[in-house]
Amino acid sequence: MDRIVPKQGAPTSFADLTAQLQPAVVNIATKQRVQVSQNPFQGTPFADLFGNQGGGTPATREAQSLGSGFIVSADGYVVTNNHVITADGQGKVEEISVTTADGTEYPATLVGSDADSDLAVLKISGKNDFPFVHFGDSKHARVGDWVIAIGNPFGLGGTVTSGIVSAVYRATGGGAYDRFIQTDASINRGNSGGPLFDMQGNVIGINNAIFSPSGGSVGIGFAIPADTAEPIVQKLISGEEILRGYLGVQINPVSEDFADALGIPANRGEFIQRVEKGEPADKAGLQAGDVVLKVNGKDITPDQTLSFIVANIPPGTRVPLEFIRNGKRETVQLVVGRRPSAEQLASQRFDPSNNNDQQDSLAPAGSGLVERALGIQALALTPQISRQLGLTEGTSGVVVTAVDPNSDAAQKGLQRGTVIYQANYRDIASPKDLEAAVSAVKSEGREAILLRLQPRGGPTISAPIRLRNDN
């Protein structure tokens, strides 16, 4: 075997490259208004005993968040993560500011954001000769390539770290955009939205997340690949609507167990668990039990999932889809549909018997008021969910999808699949209706709300649910 000699010019220092790139990297700060409890014992065992010592109305305070970003044009377009400039349901972002490497602070306006890919574009003004950087071609990134990250970890602006590409296109969850470049360059809280550069000074990734049992860097960081991010960024800048492809199937990776049961290779293709009626897969004749191997000429693998491939095909495109049914390979032509909203997808995927979504800290929907005040998460009833629950089609209400086990709602018997029809004698048809009812109760200074509800498989009852003081 020939000896591999490092290329001449392998970096002995990153100083020259850093000096060239750092002026285009910015710190991003937001100011937001959040509601907090006035209970001085909040977070202690005495919270419920002493109640809200400050009165019945929660206080509003100003909160700040910090992140990173980078300038991509001389006229001041800035790219960052969506989660850097949103309040995550806990409040309202009132102000966004961008600080450049020379310490100049600029007010920023939000040009556009995309929660699915966790990307956002800001605009700063003041001059037309901002230093900027370019996106590179992340498809050519290789494991072992040198990279550097520049950002604002823990508010320490202008921090530079180096490392290598640890893995390319690491799939972390199977979703349409759960595909990242993994690096061991130190990335910490505040690095989100900052650039990951190759040795040519091109942005090959946008730092997005870390894996860390301790909360600090342990050498496992993730960046959104440039070839995923750049087309979305350009659409946000131009004001185009971001449309994503959709098949209408629920899928599982072909694990070793699936492969042994079906007599096919593991880690190739994805198994269809369910086909949504009337959606593109159904119209093309796909069935539960089919194994999709290839779409539009691209193999389905753990690194290139069906969700990712299809999401990046424009709706209305006609593509070939190859699959296995009863041991035989078949191909159909399929017209890709338009991916529904996150709320619609959650409705489609709701399974009343699956309690895996139960969690102590509920992800907020809307403003997050219902989650914080009641400790539940809910979806509007759809015809599909009504059928699953054995309800008459057209029934109006919301269905509980998760319950905090420490909430009064849990103590009163609410669980996944419970349907709520009324709040304080008013009919509700959506989570927004329930949120409005909770808001009204809070404004009146009451500490509980009366819900008319039906536990799964039980009779309709009324139950008073005590509001939590930690909202």
UniProtKB/TrEMBL annotation:
Its main location: periplasm. PROSITE patterns: PDZ. The active site is at H83 (charge relay system), D118 (charge relay system), S192 (charge relay system). Its EC number is 3.4.21.107. The keyword Cell cycle does not apply. CDD domains: cpPDZ1_DegP-like. Keywords: Hydrolase, Periplasm, Protease, Repeat, Serine protease, Signal, Stress response. Substrate binds at H83, D118, G190, N191, S192. One of its GO terms (molecular function) is serine-type endopeptidase activity. Residues 236-309, 378-456 form the PDZ domain. Residues 343-364 are annotated as: Disordered. It is an enzyme of class 3 (hydrolase). SMART domains: PDZ (SM00228). Residues 344-361 have a biased composition (Polar residues). Pfam families: PDZ_2 (PF13180), Trypsin_2 (PF13365). It catalyses: Acts on substrates that are at least partially unfolded. The cleavage site P1 residue is normally between a pair of hydrophobic residues, such as Val-|-Val. It is found in: Periplasm. GO terms for biological process: proteolysis. Belongs to the peptidase S1C family. NCBIfam families: degP_htrA_DO. This is Probable periplasmic serine endoprotease DegP-like. It comes from Croceibacterium salegens. The lineage of its organism: Bacteria, Pseudomonadati, Pseudomonadota, Alphaproteobacteria, Sphingomonadales.
